[in-house]
Amino acid sequence: MHSTVMPAIRSAKGSKHPWFRRRALIVTKHGKERVIIPLLQHTFAMHVELLLLDTDVHGTFTGEVPRTGSAKDALQRKIADAFPFADRGDIVVASEGSFFHDMLGAVDVELVAIHEVGSESPVVGKCRSYDTNAARFQIRDDLALQRAIAVIGLPSHGAVLRVNGPVFEKGIHEAQVLKRLAQEFLEEGAAVEIESDMRAYHNPRRMRMIARACADAIRSARVFCPACGEPGFRVVEAIAGALCEWCRTPTTLAKAYRSACRRCGFESVSETGTAYVEQRWCPYCNP
Ligand SMILES: [Zn+2]
Ligand SMILES: [Zn+2]
Protein backbone atom coordinates (compact mmCIF):
# COMPACT_ATOMS: atom_id res chain seq x y z
CA MET A 1 0.00 0.00 0.00
CA HIS A 2 1.33 3.41 -0.90
CA SER A 3 1.31 6.37 1.42
CA THR A 4 -2.00 8.12 1.13
CA VAL A 5 -1.08 11.15 3.19
CA MET A 6 -0.21 14.19 1.11
CA PRO A 7 2.59 16.42 2.36
CA ALA A 8 0.18 19.30 2.97
CA ILE A 9 -1.68 17.22 5.54
CA ARG A 10 -0.51 17.78 9.06
CA SER A 11 -0.01 14.90 11.42
CA ALA A 12 1.01 15.01 15.04
CA LYS A 13 2.42 12.73 17.64
CA GLY A 14 2.45 12.87 21.37
CA SER A 15 2.39 16.24 23.06
CA LYS A 16 1.36 18.21 19.95
CA HIS A 17 -1.91 16.33 19.63
CA PRO A 18 -5.14 17.85 21.03
CA TRP A 19 -5.84 14.51 22.73
CA PHE A 20 -2.57 14.57 24.64
CA ARG A 21 -3.05 13.91 28.39
CA ARG A 22 -6.85 13.96 28.03
CA ARG A 23 -9.06 11.83 30.24
CA ALA A 24 -10.69 8.95 28.40
CA LEU A 25 -13.38 6.43 29.30
CA ILE A 26 -13.28 2.97 27.86
CA VAL A 27 -16.58 1.12 27.63
CA THR A 28 -15.97 -2.57 27.90
CA LYS A 29 -16.87 -5.75 29.64
CA HIS A 30 -14.66 -8.45 28.21
CA GLY A 31 -11.17 -7.31 29.11
CA LYS A 32 -10.43 -5.48 25.85
CA GLU A 33 -8.94 -2.65 27.88
CA ARG A 34 -5.87 -4.81 28.38
CA VAL A 35 -4.76 -4.13 24.81
CA ILE A 36 -6.42 -0.75 24.23
CA ILE A 37 -5.26 1.18 27.30
CA PRO A 38 -1.49 0.69 26.75
CA LEU A 39 -1.82 1.95 23.16
CA LEU A 40 -3.67 5.09 24.23
CA GLN A 41 -1.26 5.73 27.06
CA HIS A 42 1.74 5.23 24.84
CA THR A 43 0.54 7.54 22.05
CA PHE A 44 -1.43 10.24 23.83
CA ALA A 45 -0.43 9.79 27.49
CA MET A 46 -4.16 9.59 28.14
CA HIS A 47 -5.53 8.90 31.57
CA VAL A 48 -7.93 6.06 30.83
CA GLU A 49 -10.72 5.02 33.16
CA LEU A 50 -12.54 1.76 32.73
CA LEU A 51 -16.31 2.16 32.57
CA LEU A 52 -17.81 -1.21 33.40
CA LEU A 53 -21.15 -1.04 31.67
CA ASP A 54 -23.10 -4.10 30.69
CA THR A 55 -22.38 -3.95 26.97
CA ASP A 56 -24.08 -7.33 26.53
CA VAL A 57 -27.42 -5.50 26.42
CA HIS A 58 -26.39 -4.56 22.86
CA GLY A 59 -26.02 -8.20 21.83
CA THR A 60 -23.99 -11.27 22.75
CA PHE A 61 -22.00 -13.59 20.50
CA THR A 62 -23.86 -16.62 21.76
CA GLY A 63 -27.18 -15.06 20.81
CA GLU A 64 -28.94 -14.81 24.19
CA VAL A 65 -29.30 -11.13 23.32
CA PRO A 66 -29.39 -10.68 19.52
CA ARG A 67 -27.53 -7.69 18.14
CA THR A 68 -29.81 -5.36 16.23
CA GLY A 69 -28.36 -3.29 13.41
CA SER A 70 -24.78 -3.17 12.20
CA ALA A 71 -21.53 -3.35 14.14
CA LYS A 72 -21.22 0.43 13.68
CA ASP A 73 -24.69 0.94 15.22
CA ALA A 74 -23.66 -1.19 18.21
CA LEU A 75 -20.50 0.91 18.53
CA GLN A 76 -22.52 4.14 18.52
CA ARG A 77 -24.81 2.79 21.24
CA LYS A 78 -21.86 1.82 23.44
CA ILE A 79 -20.37 5.30 22.99
CA ALA A 80 -23.69 6.95 23.86
CA ASP A 81 -23.86 4.83 27.03
CA ALA A 82 -20.75 6.65 28.29
CA PHE A 83 -22.01 10.20 27.69
CA PRO A 84 -23.65 10.53 31.15
CA PHE A 85 -20.16 10.00 32.62
CA ALA A 86 -18.45 12.69 30.50
CA ASP A 87 -17.40 14.60 33.64
CA ARG A 88 -14.97 11.72 34.28
CA GLY A 89 -13.56 11.73 30.76
CA ASP A 90 -14.57 13.42 27.53
CA ILE A 91 -13.00 10.96 25.11
CA VAL A 92 -14.90 7.71 24.84
CA VAL A 93 -13.42 4.49 23.49
CA ALA A 94 -15.50 1.48 22.50
CA SER A 95 -15.05 -1.60 20.36
CA GLU A 96 -17.17 -4.09 18.51
CA GLY A 97 -16.40 -7.27 16.62
CA SER A 98 -18.30 -9.28 14.05
CA PHE A 99 -17.74 -12.66 12.50
CA PHE A 100 -18.97 -14.20 9.31
CA HIS A 101 -17.91 -16.60 6.57
CA ASP A 102 -16.87 -15.64 3.08
CA MET A 103 -15.49 -17.78 0.23
CA LEU A 104 -12.12 -18.22 1.96
CA GLY A 105 -13.35 -18.99 5.46
CA ALA A 106 -14.23 -17.36 8.76
CA VAL A 107 -13.58 -13.62 8.98
CA ASP A 108 -13.16 -11.45 12.07
CA VAL A 109 -13.83 -7.74 11.64
CA GLU A 110 -12.90 -5.60 14.62
CA LEU A 111 -13.77 -1.93 15.03
CA VAL A 112 -12.36 0.39 17.68
CA ALA A 113 -13.90 3.86 17.99
CA ILE A 114 -12.39 6.87 19.71
CA HIS A 115 -15.01 9.57 20.20
CA GLU A 116 -14.38 13.06 21.48
CA VAL A 117 -17.54 14.16 23.30
CA GLY A 118 -19.10 17.01 21.33
CA SER A 119 -17.83 15.89 17.94
CA GLU A 120 -20.27 14.45 15.44
CA SER A 121 -18.75 11.05 14.89
CA PRO A 122 -15.91 8.91 16.22
CA VAL A 123 -12.58 8.10 14.63
CA VAL A 124 -12.99 4.42 13.79
CA GLY A 125 -10.14 1.97 13.31
CA LYS A 126 -10.68 -1.35 11.59
CA CYS A 127 -8.98 -4.72 11.33
CA ARG A 128 -10.27 -7.48 9.06
CA SER A 129 -8.63 -10.88 9.33
CA TYR A 130 -8.95 -14.59 8.56
CA ASP A 131 -6.86 -15.34 11.64
CA THR A 132 -9.84 -16.36 13.73
CA ASN A 133 -11.05 -19.55 15.36
CA ALA A 134 -14.73 -18.62 14.96
CA ALA A 135 -16.44 -21.98 14.43
CA ARG A 136 -19.32 -24.15 15.59
CA PHE A 137 -19.35 -27.95 15.69
CA GLN A 138 -22.08 -30.53 16.10
CA ILE A 139 -20.60 -33.23 18.29
CA ARG A 140 -21.65 -36.83 17.69
CA ASP A 141 -18.50 -38.73 18.59
CA ASP A 142 -15.00 -38.48 20.04
CA LEU A 143 -13.46 -37.58 16.72
CA ALA A 144 -15.66 -34.51 16.32
CA LEU A 145 -14.87 -33.57 19.90
CA GLN A 146 -11.11 -33.78 19.28
CA ARG A 147 -11.46 -31.73 16.15
CA ALA A 148 -13.44 -29.00 17.93
CA ILE A 149 -10.83 -28.82 20.69
CA ALA A 150 -8.00 -28.53 18.15
CA VAL A 151 -9.68 -25.91 15.92
CA ILE A 152 -10.84 -23.74 18.81
CA GLY A 153 -7.40 -23.97 20.40
CA LEU A 154 -8.00 -24.94 24.01
CA PRO A 155 -6.64 -24.22 26.57
CA SER A 156 -5.47 -20.74 25.46
CA HIS A 157 -8.83 -20.10 23.77
CA GLY A 158 -12.19 -20.74 25.42
CA ALA A 159 -15.10 -22.87 24.24
CA VAL A 160 -18.87 -22.65 24.61
CA LEU A 161 -20.92 -25.79 25.18
CA ARG A 162 -24.52 -25.95 23.98
CA VAL A 163 -26.90 -28.70 25.00
CA ASN A 164 -30.11 -29.15 23.01
CA GLY A 165 -29.72 -25.57 21.74
CA PRO A 166 -29.15 -23.22 24.67
CA VAL A 167 -25.73 -22.42 26.14
CA PHE A 168 -24.85 -24.78 28.99
CA GLU A 169 -21.50 -23.19 29.81
CA LYS A 170 -19.13 -20.55 28.40
CA GLY A 171 -15.46 -19.89 28.94
CA ILE A 172 -14.36 -23.54 29.15
CA HIS A 173 -10.57 -23.70 28.71
CA GLU A 174 -9.71 -27.16 30.01
CA ALA A 175 -10.02 -29.80 27.30
CA GLN A 176 -10.64 -32.49 29.94
CA VAL A 177 -13.57 -30.57 31.42
CA LEU A 178 -15.09 -30.00 28.00
CA LYS A 179 -14.66 -33.68 27.06
CA ARG A 180 -16.21 -34.94 30.26
CA LEU A 181 -19.24 -32.66 29.95
CA ALA A 182 -19.74 -33.41 26.25
CA GLN A 183 -19.47 -37.18 26.78
CA GLU A 184 -21.96 -37.10 29.66
CA PHE A 185 -24.52 -35.26 27.55
CA LEU A 186 -23.91 -37.48 24.51
CA GLU A 187 -24.56 -40.56 26.66
CA GLU A 188 -27.88 -39.03 27.71
CA GLY A 189 -28.72 -38.68 24.03
CA ALA A 190 -28.65 -34.87 24.03
CA ALA A 191 -27.71 -32.73 21.02
CA VAL A 192 -24.25 -31.38 21.83
CA GLU A 193 -22.65 -28.42 20.08
CA ILE A 194 -19.34 -26.73 20.78
CA GLU A 195 -18.36 -23.29 19.54
CA SER A 196 -15.44 -20.96 20.05
CA ASP A 197 -15.90 -18.42 22.81
CA MET A 198 -15.58 -15.10 20.98
CA ARG A 199 -15.49 -12.89 24.06
CA ALA A 200 -12.15 -11.07 23.84
CA TYR A 201 -11.04 -12.14 27.28
CA HIS A 202 -11.35 -15.80 26.25
CA ASN A 203 -9.91 -15.36 22.77
CA PRO A 204 -6.28 -14.18 22.45
CA ARG A 205 -6.44 -14.20 18.64
CA ARG A 206 -9.37 -11.83 18.70
CA MET A 207 -7.56 -9.70 21.28
CA ARG A 208 -4.68 -9.23 18.81
CA MET A 209 -7.10 -8.02 16.13
CA ILE A 210 -8.64 -5.55 18.58
CA ALA A 211 -5.16 -4.18 19.25
CA ARG A 212 -4.62 -3.76 15.49
CA ALA A 213 -7.97 -1.99 15.06
CA CYS A 214 -7.04 0.33 17.93
CA ALA A 215 -3.67 1.06 16.34
CA ASP A 216 -5.50 1.86 13.09
CA ALA A 217 -7.79 4.33 14.90
CA ILE A 218 -4.76 5.98 16.53
CA ARG A 219 -2.97 6.21 13.17
CA SER A 220 -5.90 8.01 11.62
CA ALA A 221 -6.44 10.24 14.68
CA ARG A 222 -2.93 11.55 14.18
CA VAL A 223 -3.79 13.00 10.77
CA PHE A 224 -5.68 16.30 10.72
CA CYS A 225 -8.14 17.75 8.23
CA PRO A 226 -6.28 20.38 6.16
CA ALA A 227 -9.42 22.56 6.16
CA CYS A 228 -10.69 22.51 9.75
CA GLY A 229 -7.97 20.72 11.75
CA GLU A 230 -10.19 17.90 13.01
CA PRO A 231 -8.22 14.73 13.87
CA GLY A 232 -9.10 11.61 11.89
CA PHE A 233 -8.72 12.74 8.28
CA ARG A 234 -8.52 9.44 6.43
CA VAL A 235 -8.97 7.41 3.29
CA VAL A 236 -12.62 6.61 2.69
CA GLU A 237 -12.46 5.21 -0.83
CA ALA A 238 -10.05 3.48 -3.18
CA ILE A 239 -10.75 4.77 -6.69
CA ALA A 240 -10.35 1.91 -9.16
CA GLY A 241 -8.88 2.32 -12.62
CA ALA A 242 -5.09 1.87 -12.55
CA LEU A 243 -4.06 1.07 -16.14
CA CYS A 244 -2.63 -2.21 -17.39
CA GLU A 245 1.08 -1.75 -18.17
CA TRP A 246 0.67 -3.69 -21.40
CA CYS A 247 -2.59 -2.60 -23.05
CA ARG A 248 -3.60 0.44 -20.95
CA THR A 249 -7.02 -1.02 -20.10
CA PRO A 250 -8.33 0.27 -16.73
CA THR A 251 -8.23 -2.43 -13.99
CA THR A 252 -10.09 -2.78 -10.69
CA LEU A 253 -6.92 -1.81 -8.79
CA ALA A 254 -6.78 1.63 -7.18
CA LYS A 255 -5.38 4.54 -9.15
CA ALA A 256 -6.07 7.01 -6.32
CA TYR A 257 -7.48 7.31 -2.82
CA ARG A 258 -10.14 9.71 -1.66
CA SER A 259 -9.78 11.03 1.88
CA ALA A 260 -12.49 12.90 3.75
CA CYS A 261 -13.06 14.86 6.95
CA ARG A 262 -15.78 13.62 9.31
CA ARG A 263 -16.57 17.13 10.48
CA CYS A 264 -16.48 19.62 7.63
CA GLY A 265 -16.72 17.26 4.65
CA PHE A 266 -13.47 18.47 3.06
CA GLU A 267 -12.14 15.90 0.60
CA SER A 268 -8.89 15.31 -1.19
CA VAL A 269 -7.77 12.76 -3.77
CA SER A 270 -4.22 11.48 -3.86
CA GLU A 271 -2.71 9.39 -6.63
CA THR A 272 -1.28 6.03 -5.62
CA GLY A 273 1.99 6.95 -7.33
CA THR A 274 1.87 3.82 -9.50
CA ALA A 275 0.78 4.77 -13.01
CA TYR A 276 0.57 1.22 -14.37
CA VAL A 277 -0.08 -2.18 -12.87
CA GLU A 278 1.00 -5.66 -13.92
CA GLN A 279 -0.73 -7.41 -16.78
CA ARG A 280 -2.06 -10.15 -14.49
CA TRP A 281 -4.60 -7.68 -13.02
CA CYS A 282 -5.89 -6.73 -16.46
CA PRO A 283 -9.45 -7.81 -17.39
CA TYR A 284 -8.39 -7.78 -21.07
CA CYS A 285 -4.94 -9.46 -20.97
CA ASN A 286 -5.82 -11.88 -18.16
CA PRO A 287 -9.58 -12.31 -18.23
ZN1 LIG B 1 -3.92 -5.41 -20.42
ZN1 LIG C 1 -12.50 19.23 8.24
Question: Can you walk me through this structure?
Answer:
There is one protein chain. The protein is an alpha+beta fold and 287 residues long. Among the domains are: 18-131 and 203-221, Maf protein (Alpha-Beta Complex), CATH 3.90.950.10; 136-197. The protein is 23% helix and 30% strand. It has helices at residues 33-44, 71-82, 142-152, 175-187, 204-221, and strands at residues 23-28, 47-52, 91-102, 105-116, 123-129, 136-139, 159-163, 167-172, 192-196, 234-240, 243-244, 254-260, 267-271, 276-277. Strands 2-1-3-4-5 form a 5-stranded mixed β-sheet, with helices on both faces. Helix 1 runs parallel beside helix 5. The two termini are 24 Å apart. Bound molecules: zinc ion (2 copies). One zinc ion binds at residues 244, 246-247, 249, 279, 282, 284-285.
* Major beta-sheet overview: 5 strands, mixed
Question: Structural class, judged by helices and strands?
Answer: alpha+beta
What is the highest CATH level, the class of the domain at 18-131 and 203-221?
Answer: Alpha Beta
User: What's the alpha carbon Rg, rounded to whole Å?
Assistant: 23 Å
**β-strand number:** 14
* Assembly type: single chain
CATH topology of the domain at 18-131 and 203-221: Maf protein
Number of helices: 5
Q: Globular, elongated, flat, extended or rod-shaped: what is the shape?
A: flat
CATH architecture of the domain at 18-131 and 203-221: Alpha-Beta Complex
> How much β-strand is present in the residues?
25-35%
Distance between the termini: 24 Å
Which spans of ≥5 residues are poorly predicted at pLDDT below 50?
Answer: 1-7
| Percent in helix | 10-25%
Order of helices and strands: EHEHEEEEHEEHEHEEEEE
Strand order of the largest sheet: 2-1-3-4-5
Mean pLDDT across residues: 91
Question: What small molecules does the structure contain?
Answer: zinc ion
